[in-house]
Amino acid sequence: TLMESDENNQPLAGAYIDRSGLDAETWLTQLFRVVVVPLYHLLCRYGVALIAHGQNITLAMKEGVPQRVLLKDFQGDMRLVKEAFPEMDSLPQEVRDVTSRLSADYLIHDLQTGHFVTVLRFISPLMVRLGVPERRFYQLLAAVLSDYMNKHPQMAERFALFSLFRPQIIRVVLNPVKLTWPDLDGGSRMLPNYLENLQNPLWLVTQEYES
Fold first, then answer.
1. Distance CA 53, CA 56 (A)
2. CA distance 11 to 45
3. 31 lies in a domain?
4. Measured at the alpha carbon of residue 22, what is the angle toward residues 21 and 27, in degrees to the nearest 5?
5. Which of 32, 50, 69, 91 is the residue whose CA sits 20 to 30 A from 57?
6. Domain housing 84
7. H or E stretch covering 195
8. How many CB atoms lie within 10 A of CB 136?
9. CB 83, CB 49: distance < 8 Å
10. Is the pLDDT of residue 75 over 60?
11. What pLDDT score does 65 carry?
12. DSSP reduced 3-state for 81
C-alpha cells in the first residue's frame, strides 16, 4: 500500500507520515531500520534470503510510525546461501532438502532485486512529492545500512560477501522465464535470468556524498 496514491494523486505514505508526527526523512529512516535491516541481517547472519517483493511482507505501524516487519510465504520465497555457514548446522535436514541454495553473488539479489528494485524503486518517486528527492532517498537508505554495519564489525566478512555497495548490480529478468517455463504446476521453482549489470544507486549516492 505504500506504493499507492489516493484519488487526488496524494501518496498514501504521506498520510502515515502526517499521522506519525515525524518529518518525511525521519519516517523513511525508521522504515528502512525496521524493514531493510532485518532482511539484511537475516541474510548476512544466517545465510537466509527472502524475496521480499511486497506481497509477502507486512509493515506494522503504531500511530503511523513503522515498528516492525511481518514475513510470510516461506515455502516459496525463502532460499539459503550455498556457502557453508555454521549457523545452518542446526537446520533440519528436511528443510535443507527442499530449500533452494544459491551462491552469495546471486542470493544477494533476493534483497536487491526482490525488495530494492520491486518495492523501494516505486516508493522513491512518491517520496519526491513529499519533499524527499530520489538521491536523498537512497542516501538515507545507505546511511541506515552503514550504521547497522558499523555496529556489527564482527560480521565484516559477511558484509563483504553480501555487499550492497558495489558499483553495479545484476539485472534480474523473470518474465521471459515465466513465458517459457514448462511446468507451472510442478513442485520446482523457476529461476530468473541474470543479464547485464546496472548502476547501483547505493554506490552512486555514497560516491557523491564522499566527494
1. 7
2. 35
3. yes
4. 135
5. 91
6. 12-158
7. strand 193-199
8. 17
9. no
10. yes
11. 98
12. strand
Q: What is the dihedral of CA 131, 137, 141, 146, to 10 degrees?
A: -100
Tell me if 43 is assigned to some domain: yes
Instruction: State the total domains in the chain.
Output: 1
Please return the burial class of 102, using the count of CB atoms within 10 Å of its CB with bins 0-12, 13-18 and 19+: middle
E strand or H helix at 60: strand 57-62
What cell was used for 162? 553480501
Q: Is the pLDDT confidence value at 192 over 90?
A: no
Q: Evaluate if residue 146 carries a pLDDT over 50.
A: yes
Cell 548502476 appears where? Answer: 199
Cell representation of residue 154: 564482527
- What's the CA gap between 119 and 177, in Å, rounded? 21
**Rg over CA atoms, the chain:** 18
pLDDT digits (tens, 9 = 90+) for 30-54: 999 999 999 999 999 999 998 887 7
Residue 207, domain member (yes or no):
no
**155-181 tens-digit pLDDT:** 999 999 999 999 988 776 655 545 555
Domain for residue 194, yes or no?
no
Which domain CATH number covers 88?
1.10.510.40
Residue 109 neighbours by CB distance under 10 Å? 21
Helix axes 201-210, 134-150, angle to 10 degrees: 90
Q: What pLDDT shows up at residue 211?
A: 46
DSSP for residue 198: E
SS3 127: helix
